[in-house]
Specification:
Helix content: 10-25%
Radius of gyration: 17 Å
Number of strands: 18
Number of helices: 5
CATH superfamily: Fumarylacetoacetase-like, C-terminal domain
Strand content: 25-35%
Number of domains: 1
Shape: globular
Order of helices and strands: EEEHEEEEEEEHHEEHEEHEEEE
CATH topology: Fumarylacetoacetate hydrolase, domain 2
CATH class: Alpha Beta
């Protein structure tokens, strides 16, 4: 038997400082994972870990990854927003069952920084009608990502910050100690719902300061001095 169409090649993210690549299987995303961003979006803000409820998850397709930073302004929207995020790359298949948070970091290959680009008008309209908002999040070129840095080089991720500058001006900055749900928490919660595998990415949520992008804008996202993502918004 033969394939009736050509199978697409997997997206492969460079590993910083090496000739190696990380093939992407799935992209899981976490919503409302910084209290200040939840507040600016009008959502309930947890006051302690005991009132967090459950995390908000959504997915993006693997081929939404952008590696060269060149992002065409997407169709169907007049309100494209940036959301800078820590990106976690899983390098091992999770064992069967629910992952203990104490063992979650054993699955992590490395970290990067990325943008969860959002068609905010489409997302807002869907939310107002109680509908799924995939079209606001899971579209072409919606996941620009830096190269990945092995976990051993990053060390304790909670000691770092993520930042985003647009056209040389600071738009977002957040300390990873302020995550409502830590990486360990999120791996634990995802394992209740999915079989996590090597090649999975997790976008960990954004701090306050999300705002619109227009063609011609240039972005500079950082995970401190560890990972850098530079790019620009192209015409539609």
């Amino acid at each position: 038997m033969a394939d009736v169409v050509s199978a697409p090649a997997p997206v492969r993210i460079p590993v910083d400082g090496t000739s190696d690549h990380f093939p992407v299987r799935r992209i899981y995303c976490v919503g409302r994972n910084f209290a200040d961003h939840a507040r600016e979006m009008g959502a309930a803000v947890p006051t302690s870990k005991t009132d967090r409820g459950t995390p908000v998850f959504f997915l993006k397709p693997a081929d939404a990854v952008v590696l060269d930073g060149q992002v065409p302004y997407p169709p169907g929207t007049k309100d494209l927003h940036h959301e800078v995020e820590l990106v976690v790359a899983l390098g091992k298949d999770a064992p069967a069952g629910v992952i203990d948070p104490a063992n979650a970091l054993d699955l992590v290959f490395g970290y990067g920084v990325g943008l969860d680009l959002t068609r905010r008008d489409l997302q807002g309209n869907a939310k107002a009608k109680g509908l799924p908002w995939d079209i606001g999040k899971a579209f072409d070129h919606s996941a620009p990502v830096s190269s990945l840095v092995p976990a051993a080089r990053v060390g304790d991720y909670t000691q770092h910050t993520i930042s985003l500058d647009i056209n040389g001006e600071r738009r977002q900055h957040g300390a990873l100690t302020d995550l409502v749900w830590t990486v360990e928490d999120i791996v634990h919660e995802l394992s209740k719902l999915y079989a996590l595998k090597a090649g999975d990415l997790i976008f960990m949520g954004t701090p306050a300061g999300v705002a619109a992008l227009v063609p011609g804008d240039r972005f500079h996202a950082t995970l401190d001095d560890i990972a850098v993502l530079d790019g620009r918004i192209l015409p539609a």
